[in-house]
Amino acid sequence: xxxxxxxxxxxxxxxxxxxxxxxxxxxxxxxxxxxxxxxxxxxxxxxxxxxxxxxxxxxxxxxxxxxxxxxxxxxxxxxxxxxxxxxxxxxxxxxxxxxxxxxxxxxxxxxxxxxxxxxxxxxxxxxxxxxxxxxxxxxxxxxxxxxxxxxxxxxxxxxxxxxxxxxxxxxxxxxxxxxxxxxxxxxxxxxxxxx
Amino acid sequence: xxxxxxxxxxxxxxxxxxxxxxxxxxxxxxxxxxxxxxxxxxxxxxxxxxxxxxxxxxxxxxxxxxxxxxxxxxxxxxxxxxxxxxxxxxxxxxxxxxxxxxxxxxxxxxxxxxxxxxxxxxxxxxxxxxxxxxxxxxxxxxxxxxxxxxxxxxxxxxxxxxxxxxxxxxxxxxxxxxxxxxxxxxxxxxxxxxxxxxxxxxxxxxxxxxxxxxxxxxxxxxxxxxxxxxxxxxxxxxxxxxxxxxxxxxxxxxxxxxxxxxxxxxxxxxxxxxxxxxxxxxxxxxxxxxxxxxxxxxxxxxxxxxxxxxxxxxxxxxxxxxxxxxxxxxxxxxxxxxxxxxxxxxxxxxxxxxxxxxxxxxxx
Lengths: 195, 364
Fold this sequence. Notes:
The complex is a heterodimer. By secondary structure, chain A is an alpha+beta fold. Chain A has one domain (9-164). Chain A is built from five helices and six strands, in the order αααβββαββαβ. By secondary structure, chain B is of the alpha/beta class. Chain B is built from nine helices and 17 strands. In chain B, strands 6-5-4-3-2-1-15-16 form an eight-stranded mixed beta sheet, covered by helices on one side. At the A-B interface, helix 1, strand 1, strand 2, strand 3 and strand 4 of A face helix 3, helix 4, strand 6, strand 7 and helix 9 of B.
């Protein structure tokens, strides 16, 4: 499940990878939906060797070996997760579902992951979707959209990232498995026969 | 709101709207104390089912809800339906007919599997309802044209609720569509988008005494007389000489659901029209309002049509980034509105008394 867990250290400091991490986190814990919360929580975990090892087991990942310096000197493995301080408090996340696509833009229904409540309709330029993600754009596809202020080299940078969901395709085995479950799951359904 | 419970001799037909996007619901009281719930809607902030909230506000006993009808199984139209069914313990569940239920269940389960993996389900609310019915061991009904969904007698008056749709051809087409959806299902990062859920809507006709109530759901007119309203007009076996004095206009008053023959054949000259606007789709359009105004002197909306399409209020600094990042961003506004009509079914001269609450208003 989920996309590749490998995070290249050369990508350090960029949101898309952070979103990869968040996406993974979301799949494991559906109640943890906020990027900021996820990052802060994970950063807190990094401060404790014990909890980091637990986290490492939890994510079951084979990430690049990196030493975090004096903070946790005995660690052999770590994640290239960015320091929570790099993010300001002003972040907004949505989960979107693509409704329509034109030659220059696409329309999506957006679920507010930050504040909840009402949904929104957003129209995005196709050129704002990365080349890697554009092939994932079609009616019904799911994506995450995050905007906010990002600290880079001490400077506040405004960012907007659209990241399309990457999940394993359902195959025939999945479908057969579901078929066999249905009979058991709905064994008690009774149709009322009326005129 | 006036929370007075309807009297024993009153029939009530209440329409609840949300401004579009969060569902709509109709509540009907027949006889002494029997309720029918058609579709469901929620407050997106509190997630409360508005139909249940209304019934509790007038102190209705949820155990007296006898039937819950899902006119079409798109999540946008039935938000909160599973919770409603859960709370109405004695209610039977009825939905738009499908020939091969196992195949339809397969679609629902595959959709649910996607949700488990982070996708957005289109049929989850419906699947949850079937799970409740399965757990309870109660009956479900697959509604299709000319079917009697409820038949009760009070004070020597028969109350009969008929399904007018879907037509036989639509049911067959739906089976084909399900097969296609399953075939194309594949990728988990794609939600099932159904382009034509409105074709399968269950339009309803309630008869009691000389009164008729026509509830249009989202039914479209159809391509020919084998589908939609055209099929009802041409082939319905349950239409009689009495015309409906109350009509819930289908699909937010859109052009695709309007047929002049509906008014010529099914609706009486003295009538009440009720309509749920869909603000983000700008429905109903002014030209259709003009058309409906030509058919009625009493038109009620559950919310205003000229709703602001601004985005949500957020931190100013964030709003600046958002404005630069998106071509258009509009909030799907939640505007609750209730249009309630009551009539004394024992008085042949009585006519619908109609009240509006919250964001609802009388257009004409």
